[in-house]
Amino acid sequence: MGATRTVYMDGRDHPGLDSRYYQGHSVGYWEDETLVIETTNFSDNPIGNIFSIGSGAEKKLIERISVDTDGSTATYTFTLTDPDYLAQAVTASYQWDYRPDVSVSSQECDLEAAARYLQD
Predict the structure, then answer these.
(1) Strand partners, 22
(2) Which residues pair with 74 in a beta bridge?
(3) Over the stretch 90-101, which tens digit does the pLDDT of each residue have?
(4) Which of 19, 20, 29, 53 is most buried per CB count within 10 Å?
């Protein structure tokens, strides 16, 4: 949706907490056949988690992506922690199917419709 996310795969560490970013700072590494992405250094954001739940300096997202042996599906699992705003970790897992017949929509955002979900 117009955003670019960089996942550093070169073994670097996260910067100090004085460097914080809207999408956080992501580093990735392999655990066997699973790509693990660790994202920290999120900037404070009043709707940074979901449904107007803010996010704080200690927010951390761990994502794991593995492709099944036949290459037709991938498993995506995440764990989100944010001690400033969440009482416990949130974890979920999804199956993504390989769908070369589906194209990504390039439909423009309807600002009037989107504004209904914003708070004053």
Answers:
(1) none
(2) 67, 96
(3) 999 999 999 889
(4) 20
Look at the alpha carbons of 9, 12, 13, 18 in this order and tell me if their dihedral is positive or negative. negative
Q: Which residue has the higher pLDDT, 17 or 46?
A: 17
Helices (H), the chain: 111-115
| Angstrom distance (rounded) from CA 33 to CA 31 | 6
pTM score, whole prediction = 0.79
Please give the single-letter amino acid code of residue 7: V
Task: Compare 72 and 113 and report the one with higher pLDDT.
Answer: 72
- Tell me, what's the pLDDT at 82? 92
Q: Are strands 73-81 and 90-97 parallel, antiparallel or unpaired?
A: antiparallel
**Average pLDDT value for residue range 17-40:** 94
Laid out side by side, the sheet with 34-40 consists of 7-8, 25-31, 34-40, 60-67, 73-81, 90-97
Residue 24 CA to residue 60 CA, distance in Å, equals 9
